[in-house]
Amino acid sequence: MNTTKNDYRATYYAENRERINSARRAKRAELSRQRLAELCAPLPGEEWQPIPGSDNYRASSLGRICGPRGILKPQKHLLGYRIVDVAIGGRHISKTVHSLVALTFHGPRPEGLDICHNDGDKTNNAASNLRYDTREGNLADNYKNGTYLGKTRVRYPLSTQAPDPRLLRKLTVADVYEIRRLWQTGETYLSHLARQYDVDASTIRHHLFGNHPKRHTVVSNATVH
Length: 225
Hints:
By secondary structure, the protein is an alpha+beta fold. It has three domains: 1-35; 40-160, Homing Intron 3 (I-Ppo) Encoded Endonuclease, Chain A, CATH 3.90.75.20; 164-225, no CATH class. Helices cover 40% and strands 18% of the residues. It contains eight helices and twelve strands. It has helices at 2-15, 17-39, 97-106, 135-145, 165-168, 173-184, 190-197, 201-209, and strands at 48-50, 58-60, 65-67, 70-71, 75-76, 82-88, 91-96, 114-117, 130-133, 171-172, 217-218, 223-224. The longest helix is centred in the N-terminal third of the chain and has 23 residues, at 17-39. The chain is globular.
């Protein structure tokens, strides 16, 4: 009797596998959307929309990003932008908050255009403060808002501001090799490594995807620039 029931179940599943799996995926997606809705409680006047390419992350009209575990805390980029680690298209990557908000509320960025902050504040990532424009329009904003820094590469947003101490902190060669080992396990993120070693996320990114660490070693103090 049991054998007959098991055979019947196996046959039924084989004949309806795709429909059953599709229903399971739909149920998981609905539960995920419900959980995100609970985690991403809107502020007054705030609107949440799913980030294209990801069912588990949302962007808000006020410039916040929400993931499976709640509101993400952005890291500070060396040029003043805010970045977060997200999973899009099956890959865990670091993205600037303004690019995610612009993608969500203004659509894909047209080729050759920049994402501009209307008020010149790189931390104000509200959808209403972002627009797509030409490089000339972006530079015009910088002149108007007094944030133009010329062609010189800077280590922090404005020369009148003190640099973030994390940008000046150095890693040892041993630190770099350990960071690369942890990254290869696939169980950590750039932001986690940055917090663990108390440096900017851009420093971690440089040593993961840049040149060999020995080329950045200062022999006198055995540190990495």
